[in-house]
Design goal:
Number of helices: 16
Oligomer: single chain
Largest sheet: 7 strands, mixed
Number of domains: 2
Radius of gyration: 22 Å
Number of strands: 15
Shape: globular
Strand content: 5-15%
CATH class of the largest domain: Alpha Beta
Bound molecules: pyridoxal-5'-phosphate
Low-confidence stretches: 1-7
Mean pLDDT: 96
Strand order of the largest sheet: 4-10-9-8-7-5-6
CATH superfamily of the largest domain: Type I PLP-dependent aspartate aminotransferase-like (Major domain)
CATH architecture of the largest domain: 3-Layer(aba) Sandwich
Distance between the termini: 31 Å
CATH topology of the largest domain: Aspartate Aminotransferase, domain 2
């Protein structure tokens, strides 16, 4: 096999492996012909995809720039330094580690940097939107640490700040985690810092969801408040699937060693290059405008869903994320998700605070990248409600979805 040319086009794959090429094209068609409302997903740019599919994928690079366990790292060192510098400048952080393979790996490394097995950690409980890494018994976190969950107010759905303070005083945790997979409101990082300081705990912000909004200035930054900020790069931030950690200089060495060699092996240089591209894109005025539109769309979407009869958690949103209970429309979240999937509307179920049945978690990151705005969000809410109620004819609803997305191709041309 000749390796003189970098394989850059779908044509190469189509010629060499038509079976797989067909799978890739099938997925592209699925993404383009259905509505992507999963709050954790987005469409990254062709430049990000190009970096991901580049020959940097061939390179082994254990260690950090200038201190690698492998030869031939002089070029990828430049790529990683660029990614680190762009992340630091984008988020105003003293230190950035861009090697974490995923959001979960970033959280694992944060715990490894600050905690010992058996330590007590305060985090949002899973029924209220905590992530698996925030103490699930099915996850390393729940097995290795003693998690104490806090919750949200039963009436408002807002984090119960008084409970956080009381639990912190009672349990004196080694760390407090703030961050969620489904919380639609801004997190009060100053409050969490104050409580952490009062009880002598570290503050870990798991900003996997809002970090893209932070990059664009559409959400408050945890960086000035948290000892360690963990994040993903693939949600609103619109980069490759991966993780990132931000911290102050005093923790930089502990964080780096917690990533490699403690919890990971070789860095994935193609992904790190793609992160650098995404950070570059996120530093532009266009990206800032995009994040403002993401939030504007989510607000209109939440209001329109409420108008249609859904119970919208917290009564609205500050972010890209909306969670809603379809019970008043006569179905639970699982049934609703199944009906919507059949109509080409792709979204997640989620736990609802203080409800037995599951709700729907929706996000506006992907549709906003496609160019959809408030008008489309209102149309989607009406369509979605008709399908959930069972009043919209399924085939017709699917056609309407196709008609809508045809006007907003994620990868024009
Ligand atoms: C708050 C939070 N933490 C961690 C993660 C884990 O990210 P990953 O799936 O990349 O491991 C997620 C993913 O959605 C998340 O929302």
């Amino acid at each position: 096999m000749s390796v003189t040319h970098a394989p850059q086009t779908a044509d190469v794959l189509a010629r060499q492996d038509p079976e797989l090429a067909e799978i890739l094209l099938g997925e592209l068609d699925r993404q383009a012909s259905t509505l992507q409302l999963i709050a954790a997903e987005n469409f990254c740019s062709p430049a990000v995809l190009a970096a991901l599919g580049s020959p940097l994928a061939n390179k082994y690079a254990e260690g950090y720039p200038g201190a690698r366990h492998h030869g031939g790292c002089e070029i990828v060192d430049v790529a990683e330094r660029l990614a680190v510098e762009r992340a630091k400048s984008l988020f105003g952080a003293e230190h950035a580690n861009v090697q974490a393979h995923s959001g979960s790996s970033a959280v694992l490394a944060a715990y490894a940097a600050l905690l010992r097995p058996g330590d007590t950690v305060l985090a949002l409980g899973l029924p209220y939107g905590g992530h698996l890494t925030h103490g699930s018994p099915a996850n390393f976190s729940g097995r290795w640490f003693d998690f104490v969950p806090y919750g949200v107010d039963a009436e408002t759905g807002i984090i119960d700040h008084e409970q956080v303070r009381t639990l912190a005083r009672t349990h004196r945790p080694k760390a407090i985690v703030c961050g969620s997979i489904a919380y639609p409101r801004h997190i009060d990082y100053a409050f969490f810092r104050e409580v952490a300081d009062e009880v002598g705990a570290y503050l870990i912000a798991d900003a996997a969801h809002p970090i893209g909004l932070v990059a664009g200035g559409a959400a408050p930054s945890p960086v000035p408040y948290a000892d360690i900020v963990c994040a993903t790069t693939h949600k609103v931030l619109r980069g490759p699937r991966g993780g990132m950690i931000l911290c102050g200089s005093e923790l930089s060495e502990r964080v780096d060693r917690a990533v490699f060699p403690f919890t990971q092996g070789g860095a994935q240089m193609h992904t790190i290059a793609a992160k650098a591209v995404a950070f570059g894109e996120a530093a532009t005025p266009e990206f800032a405008a995009y994040t403002r539109q993401v939030v504007a769309n989510a607000r209109v979407f939440a209001a329109a869903l409420a108008e249609e009869g859904f119970v919208v958690t917290t009564g609205g949103t500050d972010t890209h994320l909306v969670t809603a209970d379809p019970a008043p429309l006569g179905v639970d979240g699982r049934t609703a998700r199944g009906r919507l999937a059949a109509a080409g509307m792709v979204l997640d179920c989620c736990a609802l605070p203080h409800a037995d049945s599951r709700g729907l978690r929706l996000g506006t990151a992907a549709v906003t990248t496609q160019g959809m705005a408030e008008k489309e969000m209102t149309r989607i809410a009406a369509l979605l409600a008709g399908v959930v109620r069972g009043t919209a004819e399924r085939v017709r609803a699917r056609e309407e979805v196709r008609d809508l997305v045809d006007g907003f191709p994620p990868y024009p041309g």
